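Posting this for the archive.
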Amino acid sequence: MDVKYSRIFGRRGGGKGMVEGMGREGKIGHDGVTPTEGWFIEELEVDIPTKGKHYSFPCKRWFSRDKDDGQIARVLVVEDAQAMDYKPKVPHEVTIFTGDVQNAGTDAKITMTVFGANGYTPDMVLDKLEDRFERGREDVIKIEIEDIAPLKKIRIGHDGKGSRPDWFLEKDRDDRKNDLTLCGEVGYPLP
């Protein structure tokens, strides 16, 4: 299943919720183990970027043993959803290598732009999760972008802010394991 996200609009008590499947139908429900397990779902949105599909399922039902019809799980059928098509996204991985020298890491906001023969992405802010972009680290960044292939270059930069804004970017690599050459420029051409 390549569902990017599902967004649920409604009110929920305790318990664990889940969304399963997404072929012609999907099942949504919760485990119902807590006394406040009631969950009212207004609408469920499901996005599948690699297929360029976005579904909005109107629900307007309780998922509760003591409300509505007593069901804590329901099957939602794709034919009942409002569907929207858009240009599919292509998954990529970029590995960023921060150098292993003193003060190589950064606390600045890192941005990346990918350029291809058929366009470019907007600046993407790369989340600074845990120890990302610190000395000697190899960070794998997973992105989904419109198909702009063949890729030509990647621009990586930072905003120069934070307590340690300097950064020693050693190299980066795309998901086909091509090292990107650093030429002392902001944009690095792909081989």
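The radius of gyration is 22 Å. Confidence is low (pLDDT under 50) at residues 1-7, 9-18, 179-191.
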